[in-house]
Specification:
The complex is a heterodimer. By secondary structure, chain A is an all-beta fold. Chain A is built from no helices and 11 strands. In chain A, strands 2, 4, 5, 6, 9, 10 and 11 form a 7-stranded mixed beta sheet that branches. A 4-stranded antiparallel beta sheet of chain A has the order 1-3-8-7, with no helix packed on it. Chain A is globular and about 35 Å long. Chain B is mostly beta strands. The model of chain B has no long low-confidence stretch (mean pLDDT 94). Classes of the chains: A mainly beta, B mainly beta. At the A-B interface, strand 5 and strand 10 of A face strand 5 and strand 9 of B.
Chain lengths: 111, 110
């Protein structure tokens, strides 16, 4: 059982570069989420998708865009990376309600 | 903005000891979740509590939701090294997204 799969696991970018973080789940879950985790800040919600075809902003959406490509996949895009976006990014999914299953994260450093 | 305060921030104990960690807020939550996160991995959902005063047990872990649904506690009996990790609480209020606390980092020494 793969659960929630995130790619890449590690990435280093230069300021101003763009990239897309990929997330896929194989549990037929309706809801998917993107969080960032920073030291001393806990997990903060960036965007979520309650169902295929819908996306909503979370607590810290600025500088990010998302696409719910289909029921399985939910991607997070940084159009112009900034050092403040250095973080560990987690994707999660659930049948509905609250996130149940998390991926193992993408560790992103922006120089 | 709801805030969830977790205490203690760090806890180091010997194998076999008991411990309690706390999650407090001034907000009322419709549900509260506890997660455990190990280094290099994502959080794993342990339990969801929804009713004030509710107590749930998961092997040696006992979770309690406060009567007023503003606070919760996690008690571990006879801690083992495998219990080491970051324990996160997260609360849901109304239509707002889930809010996470900053976590309690537990180290159980053999």
């Amino acid at each position: 059982n793969a659960g929630v799969t995130q790619t890449p696991k590690f990435q280093v970018l230069k300021t101003g570069q763009s990239m897309t973080l990929q997330c896929a789940q194989d549990m037929n879950h309706n809801s998917m989420y993107w969080y960032r985790q920073d030291p001393g800040m806990g997990l903060r919600l960036i965007y979520y998708s309650a169902s295929e075809g819908t996306t909503d902003k979370g607590e810290v959406p600025n500088g990010y865009n998302v696409s719910r490509l289909n029921k399985r996949e939910f991607s997070l895009r940084l159009e112009s990376a900034a050092p403040s976006q250095t973080s560990v990014y987690f994707c999660a999914s659930s049948k509905g309600g609250q996130p149940q299953h998390f991926g193992d994260g993408t560790r992103l450093s922006i120089l | 903005t709801q805030l969830l305060e977790q205490s203690p921030q760090f806890l180091s104990i010997q194998e076999g000891e008991n411990l309690t960690v706390y999650c407090n807020s001034s907000s009322v939550f419709s549900s509260l979740q506890w997660y455990r996160q190990e280094p290099g991995e994502g959080p794993v959902l342990l339990v969801t509590v929804v009713t004030g005063g509710e107590v749930k047990k998961l092997k040696r872990l006992t979770f309690q939701f406060g009567d007023a649904r503003k606070d919760s506690s996690l008690h571990i009996t006879a801690a083992q090294p495998g219990d080491t990790g970051l324990y996160l609480c997260a609360g849901k209020a109304g239509n707002t997204p889930l809010v996470f606390g900053k976590g309690t980092r537990l180290s159980v020494i053999a």
